[in-house]
Amino acid sequence: MGKHRYGAVIDAGSSGSRVYVYEWLKAEEVKDKAKEKGSDKKLDRLPNVKTKKDWRKKKHPGISTFGEKPEEVGPEHLKELVDFALEIVPKDEVAQTPIFLLATAGMRLLPDYQREAVLDNVCRYLQQHTNFQLPDCELHIQVIPGETEGLYGWIAANYLLGGFDKPEKHEHGKGHHTYGFLDMGGASAQIAFAPNATEAERHAEDLKLLRLRRVGGEAVEYRVFVTTWLGFGANEARRRYVESLLEAYPKSQEVPDPCLPVGLLVSQSGHELEAHSPELKGKKPHLVGTGKFTECMKRTFPLLEKDVPCDDPPCLLHGQHTPSIDFDVNHFVGVSEYWHTTHEVFAMAHKDKAYDFHTYQKQVTDFCSRNWDDIVKDVGQQKWGKKVDEKTVEEVCFKASWLINMLHDGIGVPRVGLEQSKEKAASSTNKTEDVVAHAKDRGFLDPFQAVDKVDGTEVSWTLGKMVLYASSQMPPADGGLAVGFGSNLPGTKLPLDFQFASGKHNSVLEHQDWHDRIFSSGYSRRAPGIIIFLLILILAVYLVCGKERRHTAFEKLLALFGRRPGTPRGKRRTGLGILGSKLFSKASEPSYERVLEAADLDDLELSSIVSEDDRHSGSSNGVEAPRTGRSSGWATPAANRGLSPDFARSSPKGKGYFDVASGGGGGGLGLGITPFEREGLVVRTESKERLAPGSARSRNGSPVRRSPLMTPFKESLD
């Protein structure tokens, strides 16, 4: 086995999927080197996660295009990416190498059933056709929300810039040493930052708890605010902008667009028009570039939706709550469109050229006022490099105006360079060169800087994901607090929405209550299946057991509720009631479920009744005393539960069930329990008034009446 661990992350975006492979030293290797050098510095930092420029590969189109043919996503899309990763990871490390596929915007737009089908097929393919470590598909294969994407980006930026491992070199003031993170894609934009102490306390419930682990095993925690603005990505913003233009010129076939270079003709979808296009024949409205960047800025400003009511202040955009940003300590880095729009054309991708508002706005204004034909010639001569094509320069004016409005009027980033430029207007000093010269020494301490790579490593949210995972693989030294993120709750108890960086280990589960584990996100999705399985298992056990075993089990169950096995069943009822007696009683036991609906008093007959003395003497007038069980039903203990309160007159203990009260005729039936001992009895008969509505009191003591509750019992008393 080698000295390194590996990990692979597939970023499944809307336009394509890109696989990244990362490596880091195993914890024991780092500790051994620390012992050799006699220094523990390397133990006080996060794992050193590395990648190389040629350790990534992209495949078009995105996996969202397999919504209607999910079974093809493996062989037609994933195979090429997986084979590429297998060429990098050593063969003897593949089984210990985790692979993640994390999908973003494109997959969020699919119907639920299609999205689930694609993810299931991704999981099945990776498990059946590779030996990568994939123990939990719910953790490794998923569609992540914009907030998670933003948090991973925040981790990557601070990891590369040194905000985690070298806080003393990144002191921003007030004990703050992490950077804010801005990301803008095609559909959405994200922001992530750690508020200052005052705002963190005021908005604690809005923050995410992030826990990492250093090589030495020490856990470190951060409280981060993350949010995403759907529809505020560059492409969606452009779509909304075009809609507003068409509304402003409802009857025009040629709609003037100040965010396009002079003379450029494009369709509503943004494609350059050709001579045979239907738009040029007057059939559809189209856009004509006027190159007025100042007017472009004014028209894109309303897209920020600053006028949307803020229900939970403070808010920045679209009425979404965001804690106040302290730009004295919150210094931001921007990636994706923030980098491409500020550097691909206007700085020729020179990585050390810093952003400042004054210089950038002047460059964009000059560029966008040019004639489109002249710009096309410069593209052909590769004036802005090989990667800049006509589509890039066609879109850059709108994107630049949107970026400036987002940064300064939306998020509130100070316009660095504006005031200084006014003061030095007569000076020949180039502000951009001045900022560039000091950018690295200052540790990106300006309010905003656009970045693409730091020390040759791309600032990608996939790196943040792998840093989180790699830190979870370091042996813990503080009781095994879980590595991951979730709601910011006080104490050490894990929130229900906690997202583990790797599989849940026992030391973590021991810190959770059983109900937390059951209702956590992973368990809650499995709960219905678990319940159904348990019900089937219980039914199977019930059917396998014979009636005798069921009866024995039932008697034991009753004992738990206070009834001793063998106690007459009429004396006490459990909550199982009739259903329990039906399911667990012996087949030979009689059932006493007859219910009286109506009867005539003349039909009521009682068996011969004798006194207690007669019963004990054994006979009366030569006739044998009836035994307790001679009459059907009544002579059993179950008779007690079938008597109405009017019939259930108390008698001294020791008398028989059918003893006549001393003193003669009107005493009624004497029960073996007093009214105060009837707890738990279930009355199953009607009262005597119900038996003979409108009649006088029945002759309870008559020995010639039999209850209609009983099955007629024919006996011969010779």
Which terms summarize this structure?
718 residues; Nucleotidyltransferase, domain 5; eight-stranded mixed beta sheet; 22 strands; disordered C terminus; ATP-binding; GDA1_CD39_NTPase; ATP binding; Golgi apyrase; membrane
**What level of helicity do the residues show?**
25-40%
User: What value does the average pLDDT take?
Assistant: 76
* Total helical segments: 23
| Percent in strands | 5-15%
Pfam families: GDA1_CD39
Biased composition (Basic and acidic residues): 31-47
Keywords: ATP-binding, Hydrolase, Membrane, Nucleotide-binding, Transmembrane, Transmembrane helix
Protein name: Golgi apyrase
Please outline the helices and strands:
Elements: E1 4-12, E2 17-25, H1 27-37, E3 56-59, H2 73-88, E4 99-103, H3 105-108, H4 112-129, H5 137-140, E5 141-143, H6 146-161, E6 180-184, E7 188-193, H7 197-202, E8 208-213, E9 219-230, H8 234-248, E10 254-257, E11 265-266, E12 286-289, H9 293-300, E13 332-336, H10 337-343, H11 357-368, H12 372-380, H13 390-411, H14 418-423, H15 431-439, E14 448-450, E15 453-454, E16 457-458, H16 461-472, E17 484-487, E18 499-500, H17 506-509, H18 514-518, H19 521-544, H20 547-560, H21 577-584, H22 612-617, E19 619-620, E20 623-624, E21 648-650, E22 669-671, H23 688-691
Parallel strand pairs: 1-4, 4-5, 6-13, 10-12, 13-14, 21-22
Antiparallel strand pairs: 1-2, 2-3, 6-7, 7-9, 8-9, 8-17, 11-12, 15-16, 17-18, 19-20
